[in-house]
Specification:
Number of strands: 4
Radius of gyration: 20 Å
Strand order of the largest sheet: 1-2-3-4
Oligomer: single chain
Structural class: alpha+beta
Strand content: 15-25%
Length: 104
């Protein structure tokens, strides 16, 4: 008999059981709760840029730097409504990533 490739069993990561792990989970949950309460609705608008015939939308950023684009995931499309927190410095935080309020 010919045996197939070795079987891989994925059991996932162990739950964070330590005091530090439990604390980290609570901090993340609290941050997400606060972001949900502070979030506002924003329209992704290209009327000043007039690029909707060239691009489908805008890319998320990993940080508050225009060049730090997340090219691996699709950002919101023009006209889409997103929920995020205005950071007060020209950026909107959308969960763990950012969108610029204005593009040049």
């Amino acid at each position: 008999t010919v045996e197939g490739p070795p079987r891989v069993v994925a059991e996932g990561m162990a739950k964070l059981q330590s005091d530090l792990g439990q604390w980290a989970r609570r901090v993340v949950a609290a941050e997400e709760w606060l972001e949900d309460r502070l979030a506002s609705q924003f329209v992704v608008d290209d009327s000043d840029l007039e690029v909707s015939d060239v691009t489908l939308g805008v890319l998320y950023r990993f940080s508050k730097h225009a060049s730090d684009r997340d090219c691996w995931s699709q950002g919101p499309q023009w006209g889409e409504i997103i929920s995020g927190v205005d950071q007060g410095d020209g950026w909107v935080k959308v969960r763990r990533r950012y969108l610029p309020i204005m593009l040049n």
